[in-house]
Amino acid sequence: MALDRIDVIAADITTLAVDVIVNAANESLRGGGGVDGAIHAAAGPDLLEECKTIPGGCPTGEARLTHGHKLQAQYIIHTVGPIWQGGEANEDGLLAQCYRRSLGLMVGNNLKTIAFPAISTGVYRFPLERAASIALSTTAAFLTGDDRIEKVTFCCFGEPSLHAHEKALAGLTP
Ligand code: AR6
């Protein structure tokens, strides 16, 4: 069952002891604010050095793997969500692709547990409820076709995000 393998929690993603946490990065992979800044601060400067070795950074909708360095998580998947431009620039498709590519990369590296932040819902201004619905439905569909992933955690920062993700999870039919 896909839904049994999904958790929605409120936490600072840098504190989670999962195999891999996801970073809502930008295309340069040189760090930034928000969750990206928090992850770089907690992982330490070796993360930036490793990111600099990735050719071409990370285009929007793609995902790249690094080590977790000082984090409890073994690995970090850096993905770049779309900047909200009003909804007519394939933002929904690109956001869904971030989740699919991250889950695909995790499976390809034999990782079992993952935590996502609410990609694009901060600085990139994607509407929260719409993003949460895409995150949950895309993940549930992926899990239905894959029995290797043990747990996907949606790590929300703040009450509005927690409620949006809980509502989106409740809206999925088993
Ligand atoms: N743990 C979990 N979630 C967090 C944390 C944390 N420690 N800190 C913030 N969030 P954002 P974006 C939530 O802005 O919209 C960066 O500068 C936050 O409340 O981090 O994809 C990058 O370098 C929000 O719900 O990412 C890019 O330039 C969610 O994480 C740009 O921001 C995403 O907010 C990416 O923008």
Please give a structural write-up.
This protein has a single domain (21-172), classed as Leucine Aminopeptidase, subunit E, domain 1. It contains 5 helices and 6 strands; from the N terminus they run ββααββαβαβα. The protein has helices at residues 34-43, 45-52, 91-108, 128-144, 159-170; strands at 6-10, 20-24, 63-67, 75-79, 113-116, 151-156. It has a 6-stranded mixed β-sheet with strand order 1-6-5-2-4-3, with helices on both faces. Helix 3 (91-108) runs parallel beside helix 4 and helix 4 (128-144) packs across helix 5. The longest helix is centred in the middle third of the chain and has 18 residues, at 91-108. The mean pLDDT is 97. Ligand AR6 binds next to helix 1.
Give the total of beta strands: 6
Largest sheet: 6 strands, mixed
Q: N-to-C terminal Cα separation, in Å?
A: 8 Å
Strand content: 15-25%
Order of helices and strands: EEHHEEHEHEH
Strand order of the largest sheet: 1-6-5-2-4-3
Number of helices in the DSSP assignment: 5
CATH topology: Leucine Aminopeptidase, subunit E, domain 1
Look at the structure and name the CATH superfamily.
Leucine Aminopeptidase, subunit E, domain 1
CATH class: Alpha Beta
For the record, the CATH architecture stands as 3-Layer(aba) Sandwich
Category from helices, strands and their pairing: alpha/beta
Q: Provide the domain count.
A: 1
